[in-house]
Amino acid sequence: MSDSASENEVVSRVYEVGYHILPTAKDEDVEKIVASIRTSIEKAEGSFIAEGAPSLIKLAYPMIVREGEKLIEYDRAHFGWIKFEAPTAAAKIVESSLNANPSVIRCMVFKTIREDTRAKMKAPQLREVKRTDVIKSSPRRASEEGAEKAPVSEVALDKALETLTAE
Q1: Which residues contact 149 (CB under 8 A, 6 or more apart)?
Q2: From CA 77, how far away is CA 79, in angstroms rounded?
Q3: Radius of gyration of the chain measured on its C-alpha atoms
Q4: Rounded to an integer, what distance in angstroms lies between the CA atom of residue 78 and that of residue 126?
Q5: Domain ranges of the chain
Q6: From CA 18, how far away is CA 154, in angstroms rounded?
Q7: pLDDT mean over 55-65
Q8: Quick one: which of 21, 89, 93 has its CA closest to 53?
Q9: Computed from CA positions of residues 139, 140, 143, 149, in that sequence, does the dihedral angle turn out positive or negative?
Q10: Could you read off the pLDDT of 86-113 as tens digits, one per residue?
Q11: Using an 8 Å Cβ cutoff, are 118 and 96 in contact?
């Protein structure tokens, strides 16, 4: 293989972009913002692999955004992600287009792998525990158990309830 052939070869990688969209954006506006993200990926010659539709979530910490002259604090945002394959230069192009979008609070583009890397929720595994020791009841406990088996009169029961509930 000649040196000129390797210079012309475009290196393609798998990337994932995660983004937070303003919580004040309406549902139809969120779709338009996501469409603009997809468009920037397509313009950078990217091909889509997977996508997580944005949903409104509570943020781990408040984010402060400058809107005109004011600083506004948000504790929620629409979070979504897109996994795509593109040339290496595409990551910077996509990130700069997202940073230029005033509706995007924060974004991150990072290199990843094609396989599904999301954490799966697993049911906790239950271990079977076998007891070999037998717990022997103490003499006091045995007398309490014997007392419970004796019949209780209605009058004694009412009297005990009155003393417990009286304040």
Answers
A1: none
A2: 6
A3: 32
A4: 36
A5: 10-111
A6: 68
A7: 92
A8: 21
A9: negative
A10: 998 888 999 999 999 999 999 999 998 8
A11: no
What is the C-alpha to C-alpha distance for residues 104 and 24, in angstroms, rounded to an integer? 11
Strands 70-87 and 104-111: unpaired
Residue range 10-111 forms a domain whose CATH class is alpha beta
- For tokens 């209605």, what's the residue? 154
Kindly state the percentage of the chain with pLDDT values over 90.
51
H-helix or E-strand containing 142? helix 139-149
- The letter for the amino acid at 63 is M
What's the one-letter identity of residue 108? M
Q: Which two tokens stand for residue 64?
A: 């402060």
Q: Shortest CA distance to 62 belongs to which of 72, 53, 49, 70?
A: 72
Residue-level pLDDT at 76: 95
Q: CA end-to-end span of the chain, whole Å?
A: 95
Query: What pLDDT is stored for residue 4 in this prediction?
Result: 47
